[in-house]
């Protein structure tokens, strides 16, 4: 007998078969209560990437509609079949349909945010199912310093630019898999004292660690089997590097912080018009 298989990547889900629209939500609840009720129902089918509730559009009956995005197409399909036409948490039936809406960013593949990567990995693998280890975290010379420039006065302090690089490894001990990610972040600021410099260093070090983790997860595949088991595979990409290639890897695999600001995908998803399908 064939075993049903679903493959999840650590990228923003944009496919129509992973997105549900919910209509005919009664106005007898507040928006927060509706959100909590929907989350309780639909998260029982699998982890949710996004759940957004909006008031019904003008000239429509009062109430709410919702956009729900799953990581898994199979889980979205099952949720749609088992909830469409049922009252669930209200007295009248809900309308639940898979999305047929095309969006302006369907062609773009974007990695998940750091928070979403952690949540997805922890959901399927558990908190002890994977580990991350920093191989290299160091301050790098800025472009100005490399060109012979440096600090300069501005207002009540000195204008500084900090740049950090990180090489990080993710391990999945139960599956015998490992992968690495690298990132570089930088920022300029007015330094008015040693406390400001320390805070900025700490902030950038956290940002570069988070981005290196995101970069590493982009090569990871979660394989969900129909019997409930989970497998982990690592994609072999053209920019994969070996342990002995660690030296200088930050220059080869540089990822600018500006490319993937935190939670960028959440802001774009909120641009969806929930009043149309």
From TrEMBL:
InterPro entries: DSRM_RDM1, Nucleotide-bd_a/b_plait_sf, RBD_domain_sf, RDM1, RDM1_RRM, RRM_dom. This is RAD52 motif-containing protein 1. It comes from Mastacembelus armatus (zig-zag eel). One of its GO terms (molecular function) is DNA binding. The keyword RNA-binding applies. One of its GO terms (cellular component) is cytoplasm. Keywords: Cytoplasm, DNA-binding, Nucleus, RNA-binding. It holds the Pfam family DSRM_RDM1. Homodimer. The lineage of its organism: Eukaryota, Metazoa, Chordata, Craniata, Vertebrata. Its main location: cytoplasm. Residues 18-101 form the RRM domain. It is found in: Cytoplasm; Nucleus, Nucleolus.
